[in-house]
Specification:
CATH topology of the largest domain in chain A: MetI-like fold
Order of helices and strands of chain A: HHHHHHHHHHHHH
Number of helices of chain A: 13
CATH architecture of the largest domain in chain A: Orthogonal Bundle
Helix content of chain A: over 70%
Oligomer: heterodimer
Low-confidence stretches of chain A: none
CATH class of the largest domain in chain A: Mainly Alpha
Mean pLDDT of chain A: 90
CATH superfamily of chain B: MetI-like
Largest sheet of chain A: none
Number of helices of chain B: 10
CATH topology of chain B: MetI-like fold
Shape of chain B: globular
Number of domains of chain A: 2
Strand content of chain B: under 5%
Helix content of chain B: over 70%
Shape of chain A: flat
Distance between the termini of chain A: 65 Å
CATH architecture of chain B: Orthogonal Bundle
Structural class of chain B: mainly alpha
Chain lengths: ~300, ~300
């Protein structure tokens, strides 16, 4: 009798089968989550460590790296100036995004404010297709269509900044468009109705009410587009000409941070200054990516 | 009166401008698809798909690249789906509004916005240099996993969120543990959405090249397709061999230009790549719907 009572309390004190299930589930899902966190920390740590080597072990000056355009790391630490690539990366990013924004806005307005359902559906598929085409294919199209076109129109080799901008324009377009559509969809329908009821025309309503209300979302879309343009590697590398020069006109060959990394990393020996300098470019890319994230966050906070 | 006319005129101009811009984008897309398929498809033949690529002669094929792309895709999905599923379940079912959830969301955002070349370089420094795996399928698959995790997690998370809370309550009311409710009730009903998410991410993996050039490598070892022992160095299943994929092949033949028919090979490869990605994108939703009909009584 007392024995039975004993086992009874024992069972109550023990975790039930369901509770054990629960622990099991929580543990394995938590493990995946912790895995992802460790992964991101590891990426930042590894790239950071390798990217800082040029500054710590090779004593390259940070100011030289950022502001000098003398890039020839094989010749010594005075020649690790990444300014030409930094400027090209920013130039290509800004111009490609500027070019894409009007198209993205037009597509976004067309898809949310016009009421042609079937056309909207086709356009949706089209934007998804544009987003799905692999970046090397865009690079290949750049080499076979855009570069020869630039060569015939403007002369020169055709490989250069303009080719990079045009390729990136098509690549960032779907990114900016789909996020712009989300932003426009988020504007309450009453805003539009109220404005139209006041006698405003369709365009007055769209430009002064809808677009204004959706501005934070559209800005976020533009930042995401810029981030994609800044980080895109192979497509740009295929068309930009890969010469580390300060850009002086739009058809001159140049190199971005990403194009230099992709084309040169295989040609340097691990641990040398030339190699470390390339890792510093990677670190710069990583920091820019974090900065884009921060800006998106700040815009998101102001919106909320 | 004049102001009113101005507004109407502006309205008209704006509408016309929007139509023109949208039309231009349509033309660009049709042009791209037409060009890739028009120039590439005629060169795609059985011979092209089943013969080895050549490093300096014309008439090479893409047999190994095609297999490598598919093999890397399968391996990447095998590694990344369980992790993404776990993380997505944690985020939708268990996460409270605390620092850990915040940190995790930030980390996923950071990871998803990292340029793929940076992820590739991380894979290079960790697997190829530190773990001395050399350029290998394993290093490539693990790197592609890192590249794929954030998007896949978000896709699966969205699928899980579409399951109504009442389903979870019903499971719990039966006395099931929360975990059992998740995998017995929530997961099956979210399965079509999850499949759609996985197939969509597969399209992205298939076309990725920047993360692979310094991890899976840019060359092929000679392999035998009759050797089924994955530990044999010449087996096609060996994960320690370097492997060039279709996407990397396009980049490689274009930037080196050693073979005389580089443009033809690249355009044919691009056509294959685009068609496969299109199939993935189109079939993603269809497959999800099909599975939904199969496992439920909805007809």
């Amino acid at each position: 009798m007392s024995d039975k009572k004993h086992t009874h309390t024992h069972q109550l004190q023990q975790a039930s089968r369901e509770t054990r299930h629960e622990w099991y589930g929580k543990t394995i899902t938590l493990a995946s989550v912790v895995g992802i966190i460790i992964l991101v920390v590891a990426i930042i740590y590894f790239i950071g460590q390798r990217g800082l080597a040029a500054f710590t072990t090779d004593h390259v000056k940070v100011t030289d790296f950022l502001f000098s355009a003398d890039w020839n790391p094989l010749d010594g630490k005075q020649y690790v100036g990444a300014a030409a690539m930094i400027v090209t990366s920013f130039l290509v990013m800004i111009l490609a995004t500027l070019l894409a924004v009007p198209f993205a806005l037009a597509l976004g307005i067309f898809m949310t404010e016009f009421t042609k359902k079937r056309l909207t559906k086709y356009l949706q598929i089209m934007i998804e297709l544009l987003a799905g085409i692999p970046s090397v294919v865009y690079g290949f199209l750049g080499v076979t269509i855009i570069v020869p076109a630039i060569r015939t129109i403007f002369g020169g080799a055709g490989f250069g900044i303009l080719a990079g901008i045009l390729v990136l324009f098509v690549m960032v377009l779907p990114t900016i468009t789909s996020l712009t559509i989300d932003a426009l969809k988020g504007v309450p329908a009453q805003y539009r109705q109220a404005s139209l009821a006041l006698g405003a025309t369709w365009w007055q309503t769209t430009s002064k009410v809808i677009l204004r209300a959706a501005t934070p979302g559209i800005l976020t879309a533009i930042i995401f587009g810029m981030a994609r343009a800044f980080g895109e590697a192979l497509a740009v590398q295929m068309v930009i000409g890969n010469a580390v020069l300060m850009p002086h006109n739009l058809i001159s060959p140049a190199a971005t941070l990403t194009s230099q990394l992709t084309s040169q990393l295989g040609n340097t020996v691990n641990g040398t200054l030339a190699n470390n300098a390339l890792w510093s470019l990677a670190l710069f890319l990583l920091l820019m990516s974090l900065a884009f994230n921060l800006v998106v966050r700040i815009i998101g906070k102001r919106k909320g | 009166m004049k102001r009113k006319n101005n507004a109407k005129l502006q309205n008209k101009i704006a509408m016309i401008t929007i139509y023109c811009l949208v039309g231009t984008v349509c033309l660009i897309l049709l042009g791209i698809l037409g060009y890739i398929l028009g120039t590439g498809l005629p060169h795609v033949s059985w011979h092209f798909l089943t013969s080895e690529s050549s490093s300096f002669q014309a008439h090479g094929g893409v047999r190994d690249q095609l297999f490598n792309s598919l093999y890397l895709l399968v391996l990447t999905l095998i590694i990344s789906v369980p992790i993404a599923l776990g993380a997505a379940i944690y985020l939708t079912e268990y996460a409270r509004d605390n620092w850990l959830t915040n940190l995790l969301r930030t980390m996923i955002e950071v990871l998803s916005s990292l340029p793929s070349i940076v992820v590739g370089l991380f894979g290079y420094s960790l697997f190829v240099i530190k773990f001395e795996l050399s350029f290998s399928i394993l290093a490539g698959a693990l790197t592609l996993t890192f590249f794929n995790l954030p998007l896949l997690t978000r896709n699966i998370e969205e699928a899980l969120r579409t399951v109504p809370a009442t389903q979870r309550e019903a499971g719990l009311a039966l006395g099931l543990s929360y975990w059992k409710t998740v995998y017995g009730v929530v997961l099956p009903s979210a399965l079509p959405g999850i499949i759609t998410g996985i197939v969509l991410s597969a399209g992205r993996i298939f076309g990725e090249a920047a993360a692979l050039i310094y991890t899976a490598g840019q060359s092929n070892a000679t392999v035998s397709y009759t050797d089924w022992n994955p530990f044999s160095p010449t087996s096609f299943l060996n994960v320690m061999r370097p492997a060039e994929t279709l996407a990397v092949h396009i980049w490689k033949v274009n930037s080196e230009g050693l073979i005389p028919d580089a443009t033809l090979v690249a355009s044919a490869t691009a056509a294959i790549l685009v068609i496969v990605v299109l199939i993935f994108n189109v079939s993603a939703r269809a497959l999800g719907n099909f599975i939904y009909k199969k496992i439920t009584s909805a007809r």
